[in-house]
Task: structure prediction
Amino acid sequence: MWERITKKISIFLLVLSIVFANTLGVFANTVENIVEGFLVEMGENQVTVEEYDGTVRTFPFNSYYILRIDTLNVDSSDFKPGMEIYLKLQNNKVSFLEGFSTVSPGHIPEGSKVRIGTIKKIDRDQLIVKLDSGQEETYFTSPATILLRDGLKVPLSSLYEGDMVKFYFDEIDSKIISRMSVQGKSIEVKGLYKGKLALADVIKKELTLTDLKIFRNGGWENLTNSKTISYDESSPIHIGGQKISEDKLKYYKDNTVYLAVKDYFSSDRIESMVLESQNEAVYIDTIENINWFGNSMELEVSHRNLTFNEGTIVVKNGRLSDINSLDAGMDIFIVGDGTSGTMSANIIYVYNEGINNSNIGQNYIYEGRLDAVFRNTIMLKDFAYLNNNSWEAFNNSKELYYDEDTIIYDFDEKRILSSEEFYYGDYAIDEDSRYAQENSLEDRYAYLYTEGDRVIALMVQKNRDSLLKQRITNGVALEAPENHKWTGWRINIANAADWSSRKGQWMARKDSFYITLEDAIIIKNGRIIGSDQLNKDDRLYIVREDLKAKVIIVK
Result:
């Protein structure tokens, strides 16, 4: 009898343990998470929420769920888009959702709405942005909008088309940007490469190329016999204007491929690639006109007509840019693909560079004689200013303003002046006075970098330079500057173009060359910097006399 009782108890305990274990298993696999944000859409079986950091996510409802607004049980129809909501998720399904109607409509913590995208077009206070989601949005700046680059506050005029930016908003429905943060130099093109496709490893996301060349000084220069470069799934691949998947790369072994490469944690990474379809043709020319309906452009000198497509790699201001950023009159390097009859552009490299990055900026470079220096005011006489990359001279006076933030550099004494030293110094005097004659004093001359009529930085010097000897050049620092034992600080410039006033266009150079920096005022982000603070790959706008730089603006 005891044996039968013991056996029944054992069976009961076994069944109980199985049930208990299964029950524990159910609860052990239940994962609960919290999500907060704003209601985008309430569906019958799911809800879409925009989290406070801007992430939009959709969650299905659990088989059993609770809906509340301000602690009261409600139906799904009572929820309105834009309402702040709080969700509890079990196994990624909504088990509890509460809305809050007491908060002011559209109010969110300052800067908590975030978007990330690439600037396609800049038109004064209007930015057309392509978001990471692929959508296009139009946002607006205001005088209160803050722009950060590398963690430092910089003027809005330093924005470029092609910049990748994180946007912050203070209101849920607002299009006015509160703050912008440019994503470092990661969006700048490190180089344009050309090579033969030897191997495509879709597992490691790597391409191995042979006979690799780099675009430099208006042509292709040999770089290395073989190189392996990484890419990611978002890197677009095109051939003949058609987008193809990475899986098809294996069929294009030994094809010529063109790459736009960026720096990725000190390594090369492919940002965009185009496979050659037929035959390469190279042009250095000027865009005469663009037919946006026919996706084509006519060149001014060669009179060639080329088509373009969504795969065309456009590099402008050192950045990958949208094809819509092109305009008639731009001076370009083109890699064409096709035959004598039809030609499509695989690469368009824009040489054009100006003092201002876009029409947001109102920066100018002046040169002239200091006729009078008052507190906060300068009278410039017999002055000139750079107008469309050429000096335009005037024989009258120009009033400009300076303040405590203006950087004043005495070229002859090699030192920064305070505004008080500048005001009380002998920089603008009455040359007919006894004091001036007894001390052999004369008015000084100056280069001035301004925002409108406000002087950001100026360099004063005793002797005046001949503006007729000067030319305007833009290019890229091939390497970091060096302090040469004979010339002092100098830097090597590549991919350079000189402005031709006679032709009214940028003339691409076919060589790299050194310019000396000892006589130059160098401006970066509105501040004067030293020669040793220039970096490899810096894009430079240069006013120079022969090989001596006078004004350099780091772009």
